[in-house]
Structures are given as C-alpha cells and as structure tokens.
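job 3f2a | input accepted
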Amino acid sequence: MAVEPTDHDRLPCGTDLTTLAGHLAEGALTAHERNCSHCRGAVRRLRALDSARDDLASESVSAPPQLLDEVMRVVRTEGRPGRALPVPPEQHGVTRVREPAAARILRTAAETVGGISVGRCRISEEDEGLSVLLTARVETGAAIPELAEAARRAVRDAARHQLGWTLIRVDVEVVDLS
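job 3f2a | predicted structure (178 res):
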C-alpha cells in the first residue's frame, strides 16, 4: 500500500520533499529542482541536515561508566513475570513478593551450603501450603543425602525468616555433578 504524501511533505511549488531528498542523495536533481527557489532552499536545508548527521556519525561516543549499572538497577526493580505470592502478616496491608524474587532468595540460601549449585527453584502452591523444588549440581564425591538435607534446612530457614513462610516440602533434584 503506497503512502500518499501530505501537504506538509510538499514545497509550495508542489515538489515532494522525500522525492527531492532522494534526488539529492543520488546527485540527480531535476532541472526544476535546480532552478526553483523553493527547491534550492530545501536542498540547502537538507545538505545542512546531512552535514550535521555526518558530523555526529563520525564522533566517538561512549556511555558513562555507571550507565549499565543504573539501567540494570531500574530493570531489576521493575515487576517481573511470575505470580505475586503473599508475605505474612497482612494486618496493616498486603505485602507480596514476585515468584522470581522469592526463588532467588531460596536459591541463594541453598547455595550457602558448600558443594551445591542450584539451577532452578520452583515454588508450588498446594492445598497444605507452599513447596519448593530445587534442581542442583553437586560436587563430585559429595555425600548427596547430607548436602540435600543441609540445603533443605537453609531453604526452610530463609523461607521462614525472610519471607514469613513455612514450607511443607523442599525437594532437591540432583541433575549434574561438577
């Protein structure tokens, strides 16, 4: 579907600015465009814009060193996908934590146990309460039952102290060795 130029895109002589700019870029101005005062004025302005664009394009630009940190700080504070889970008590208002944030708290707690690295942390709502499934990698030669139990304790403690939750179950699925 072709877009028709509007009156704002035309010079008083009727020349379309987009067409004039194209002819200028190709170095192929028509006789009218070379001789018309309206077209010559537009050509001067277009050349000034082209010159300014070229000057800016040739400048070396670098972002301030703190820009990435500032952008990431804002990104991290934005609402993330996932359910909003309630954090008790709710006496004076409601506090909710997004599932990815809660999972990060629990994953970090599990990783305080030496010899375990947690990949995924899934939080499930069941009839009896909340349960957690951790997928983990453990160090080769580690005693998996002891590591899993220590991770469970760390996750339960973090859930209770940082989120106000009492978990009904914490499952640890070892998916790899490091």
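job 3f2a | The chain has two domains: 7-58, 81-177.
job 3f2a | closed
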